[in-house]
């Protein structure tokens, strides 16, 4: 099963419901919980219900980061409903910019032809005026992105918002409509998320050094660990593991091992 | 793929902004206050952005031209550089920009004229005669020229700066603006590595044949040509490849049109080296790099390169036209 490595931060359970069923997420049971968590370990997908507002979104993001496995390829997603002056109910947006008071934040530049790009003004109280056109008003994106920027690259940050109300239509039947709009757009939302997953697949995994092979034979001080780790990382780019094992076997002490590795690297010439 | 274009609010209505925007089909425009709020942030992945870099249109307000490091010259006493753009269309594995910037998005400073104004002060200070200005330090000067139209402005202005020398360095084959009467104070400088190396390590750069064909055309228009082997790279079979490359280039450009030839090894300041190393965990190109006394990371191959280049180049062109960018250990 290919891991998707997704982290969702969603304000309300009703907004999360379709995602929970799409990815077959199960409730994560812990005794003392600050936020409700869902997960699918096989796909490495986690979701937190943050509650409404930027403070909650920020806290829930932090909570999910601490609770779920850290992976360089994780995509962090904030999904939810928003209001607008002129956009139609149910319209879906791939948010590129979040402005809170005078500060602005940016998400990945990934766009597709299915979900329109959009900009958010994040606010602390329910917005009724919608004074600006062509933007979305909502209450969590700022809390989410301000927190997520601390540990995640911009290219792995995705915010998706759907219009629940606008100047002409108050948010009546919020539960029913939210369920409908998200379900209706779910396929497109999934496609956008998959595009992010595809981009993240280009991220280099860290090379694990075979240092443990040395540690089986020698006790290493902290400084030797650093020197040898670097040497082994370079060595294993050019020679197979069994040769390293042979060198370790034949070395009387660490100094001899370091010299041998250095010399082996020195005699290598780049092949093009 | 649609392009995301960030534009500083203050320049959104300027003619050059509109000109650049017209080059893109249905771009996604995001207005920003200053380019730095997008470009300088730490949490960015240079490699991922490189897949489809966004464009940032900005205005520069200060530091239009800067002094080059002391030993950097192609013959003149005063040496300055400027960058109307940050980052590059090409993707060279050794490019130092990827260790210098957090972002691989293209920043284009559209107020070209302000760069030229600053350059004209040098003329007024009366040091113009002994000055070279280098373009293409933080970008490839011409790689994006069909979008930016930068070289047209350069040609217009440098016609009047006839005592200040300008080097335009590139790996691009987009040389159309130079298919015209040459200017004596402009040096078109082309960086080359052997084809075998270039194919693997200089992604997006045209084949040697295409580049040499483009070079021939500007030679025919009489332009001064700079040839740059910087970086000069050592790998299995490099001698044969370089001899072949030298032969091709020196038979393409007549001696009298060769303004200068420079060569140097791959070298980085510590911070830049560490950033690049982290990006390519399996790359063998940097395997033998070590810190030297000046806190610069390079391979210990300066002497080898220097001897090889001198042996060949001094038989081809006047020694005074050859410049070495390998620094004392
Ligand atoms: S052409 Fe120059 S600026 Fe562009 S990627 Fe290559 S080394 Fe960097």
Describe this structure in words.
The complex is a heterodimer of chains A (272) and B (329). Chain A is of the alpha/beta class and 272 residues long. Chain A has two domains: 195 residues, Nucleoside phosphorylase domain (Rossmann fold, 3-Layer(aba) Sandwich); 63 residues, no CATH class. Chain A contains eight helices and ten strands. Chain A has a five-stranded mixed barrel with strand order 5-9-8-6-10. The model of chain A has no long low-confidence stretch (mean pLDDT 94). Chain B has 329 residues and is α/β, with parallel strands linked by helices. Chain B has one domain: Alpha-Beta Horseshoe (pyruvate-formate lyase- activating enzyme). The longest helix of chain B is centred in the C-terminal third of the chain and has 15 residues. The radius of gyration of chain B is 20 Å and the shape is globular. The model of chain B has no long low-confidence stretch (mean pLDDT 94). At the A-B interface, helix 6 of A face strand 2, helix 3 and helix 8 of B. The site of iron/sulfur cluster has 9 residues of chain B, from strand 7.
Task: Summarize the topology.
The complex is a heterodimer of chains A (272) and B (329).
Chain A: E1 6-10, H1 13-22, E2 26-27, E3 36-40, E4 45-49, H2 54-67, E5 75-84, E6 92-100, E7 103-106, E8 116-122, E9 136-138, H3 141-148, E10 157-166, H4 174-200, H5 211-215, H6 222-238, H7 241-250, H8 254-266
Parallel strand pairs in A: 1-4, 1-5, 5-10, 6-8, 8-9
Antiparallel strand pairs in A: 2-3, 3-4, 5-9, 6-7, 6-10
Helix pairs in contact in A: 1-4, 2-3, 6-8
Chain B: E1 4-8, H1 15-21, E2 28-32, H2 36-39, H3 46-49, E3 55-58, E4 66-67, E5 78-82, E6 85-86, E7 91-92, H4 97-100, E8 106-109, H5 112-124, E9 131-135, H6 145-148, H7 150-158, E10 165-170, E11 186-191, H8 195-201, E12 202-203, H9 208-220, E13 224-229, H10 238-252, E14 258-263, E15 267-269, H11 270-279, E16 290-291, E17 296-298, H12 302-316, E18 322-324
Parallel strand pairs in B: 1-2, 1-3, 3-8, 5-9, 9-10, 10-11, 11-13, 13-14, 14-18
Antiparallel strand pairs in B: 4-5, 6-8, 7-12, 15-17, 16-17
The complex binds iron/sulfur cluster (SF4).
Residues 88, 90-92, 95, 97, 139-140, 171 of chain B line the site of iron/sulfur cluster (SF4).
